[in-house]
Backbone:
């Protein structure tokens, strides 16, 4: 057995006494000069500033500026980065199948599809029309898309420019790919790009449209007056 030295035994005894003895505090009075707190309360400063802005009409002006900025961001969203005009034809097939992360249950609790099942939406619901991605700032792309795709046959989706400003002169609806969700999923890097359904896959084609007066550019699967240029093909994803 290890024996405690007298010093360790004394230290341990003192610690036990300190722990068991009641604690006491002694007021030694005020030492030195004290000063009052002179900093202004921040909440009071903010409240005073807001009252001043309200009186002067500053709050109304601020609200008007915020409203104008919100409307501008909706009417003209920020252009998607990394999307450039197509310089050569490019075409590929895309498999839209998804893996279910949980069971799909019906209204009566019956299981329609089990977790982990691979589901292809095109095998269940037909694609209603083509998706045509354009840079709305390029008149050539917008003219090309609106002349080749009727409103009931395709949705023209902007990656840049204002779809709202284009609705009145073209007398049709346009959409915007918010945050680039679709072009990222499909692997689109250039516009115009046309997405159509073929059996259980999506066919995606990037089609060059020259600057200046519109010239005929063939879309795979669409009738056109000129013979289509050779395309680069790759299954399940775009060619590099």
Residues:
């Amino acid at each position: 057995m290890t024996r405690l030295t007298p010093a360790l035994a004394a230290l341990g005894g003192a610690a036990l006494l300190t722990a068991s003895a009641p604690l006491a505090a002694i007021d030694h009075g005020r030492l030195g000069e004290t000063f009052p707190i002179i900093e202004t309360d921040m909440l009071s400063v903010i409240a005073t500033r807001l009252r001043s802005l309200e009186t002067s009409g500053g709050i109304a002006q601020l609200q008007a500026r915020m409203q104008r900025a919100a409307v501008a961001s909706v009417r003209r969203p920020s252009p998607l980065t990394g999307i450039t005009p197509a310089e050569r034809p490019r075409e590929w097939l895309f498999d839209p199948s998804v893996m279910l992360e949980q069971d799909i249950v019906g209204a009566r609790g019956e299981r329609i599809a089990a977790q982990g099942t691979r589901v292809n939406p095109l095998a269940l619901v037909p694609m209603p029309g083509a998706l045509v991605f354009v840079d709305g700032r390029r008149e050539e792309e917008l003219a090309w898309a609106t002349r080749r795709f009727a409103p009931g046959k395709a949705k023209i989706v902007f990656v840049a420019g204002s779809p709202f400003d284009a609705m009145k002169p073209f007398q049709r609806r346009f959409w915007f790919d918010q945050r680039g969700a679709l072009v990222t999923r499909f692997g689109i890097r250039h516009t115009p790009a046309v997405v159509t359904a073929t059996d259980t896959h999506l066919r995606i084609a990037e089609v060059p449209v020259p600057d200046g007066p519109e010239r005929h550019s063939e879309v795979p699967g669409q009738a056109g007056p000129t013979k289509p240029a050779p395309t680069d093909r790759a299954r399940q994803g775009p060619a590099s």
Remarks:
- The helical segments are 6-20, 42-56, 58-75, 139-148, 163-170, 181-186.
- Residues 54 and 195 are 52 Å apart (CA to CA).
- The first strand starts at residue 84 and ends at 85.
